[in-house]
């Protein structure tokens, strides 16, 4: 049996058609600005079970990703911002082996920043690409995308209590996870990669590594299913870019950029040079 060690945390709690501000069937995902207002969503056609929307980012705004579990079982959610896992800070492929947050049945949580320790986060805020957390590692491969993959917990048969003491043998030891590459090694690899940035990318939005805040969490055991039941992608852009894309009724078609999360379906360390 594979056991994934995860983190559970939360604060309980032609223009395209505009959605009410939430996306998802198994879980509901919203994005809230610091003022409490919801970012409106503009739907995009996507292949099932993926869902895609556009949203407008306002430069300098801090924001939260709000997730509500709509299922009657625990789920794990892998959340990536600009292609980076918000718990570990590592490049994310939305796999069930990554660090994830756990939601109890029907519960709602707010994720407001990069997890920099078990009791600390650094806040999300909308910024230019060069100032973003992902770009600090030389990674612009999924810039401007908030991605959520939903993994229900594996449900196994449990014998009645009166028979449990009759079972012999010990439970198998949890499978050890392969160590994630260090931030230093990833920076070294990215430094060797081509550093050219497209003009279009520089005009796009990204998410920064903002102010530090207290945010306690605890480690729990969770065995996710092998496949996600739903993937959601929120592509946030400045208003002028949404205009060029004719999402909000003006401008010219937006030039297509390769973005591995949008097109293709440990803890977060500080950006390089920042202690």
Textual characterization of the structure:
This protein has one domain (4-155, 179-244). The strands form three sheets. Strands 3, 4, 6, 7, 8, 12 and 15 form a seven-stranded mixed sheet that branches. Strands 2, 5, 9, 10, 11 and 13 form a six-stranded antiparallel sheet that branches. It has a two-stranded antiparallel ribbon with strand order 1-14. Strand 10 (113-117) and strand 11 form a beta hairpin. It is globular, with a radius of gyration of 19 Å. The chain is built from five helices and 15 strands. It has 275 residues and is mostly beta strands.
How many domains would you count in the coordinates? Answer: 1
Mean pLDDT: 79
Our measurement of the CA-to-CA distance between the termini, rounded to an integer number of angstroms, reads 39 Å
Helical amount: 10-25%
Count of discrete alpha- or pi-helical segments spanning 4 or more residues: 5
Write the element-wise H/E pattern from the N-terminal end onward: EEEEEEEEEEEHEHHHEEEH
Could you tell me the number of beta strands?
Answer: 15
Structural class, please?
mainly beta
Give the overall shape. globular
Residue windows where pLDDT falls under 50 for at least 5 positions:
1-6, 8-16, 168-178, 183-198, 251-255
Report the biggest beta sheet as strand number plus sense, adding barrel if it closes. 7 strands, mixed
What portion of the residues fall into strands of 2 or more residues?
25-35%
Q: Using only CA atoms, what is the Rg?
A: 19 Å
